[in-house]
Specification:
By secondary structure, the protein is an alpha+beta fold. It has a domain at about 30-90. Helices cover about 55% and strands about 25% of the residues. It has helices at about 1-25, 55-70, 70-80; strands spanning about 30-40, 40-50, 85-90. It has a three-stranded antiparallel β-sheet with strand order 2-1-3. About 10% of the residues are buried.
């Protein structure tokens, strides 16, 4: 009987943990943006999610630059440029 109580408590704790993870992950992705970057003749577009507009935009820029710039210096130079396009998307 004790094993059944412990088993039920473990299952309830696991369900609570999964629900908390789901809720937490949904709150971090309120803003969605597609950004296109151009660097040294190469162009790349990436979509990112973020809890704030600024975070979503920064993530998309960094991801796009990671694909077209090599090395830390080039990546930083690419990220400092203005995006060629910014498109705010609805939904998650």
């Amino acid at each position: 009987m004790k094993n059944l109580k412990w088993g039920a408590m473990i299952v309830l704790a696991a369900i609570g943990f999964i629900a908390a993870l789901f809720y937490n992950s949904m709150s971090y992705s309120q803003f969605r943006v597609e950004v296109c970057m151009e660097f040294e003749g190469r162009t790349n577009c990436r979509t990112a999610l973020g809890a704030t507009e600024e975070l979503a935009l920064r993530t998309a820029v960094d991801n796009a630059c990671a694909m077209i710039a090599s090395g830390m210096t080039n990546s930083m130079a690419c990220s400092a440029k203005q995006p060629t396009s910014i498109k705010w998307l609805k939904g998650k």
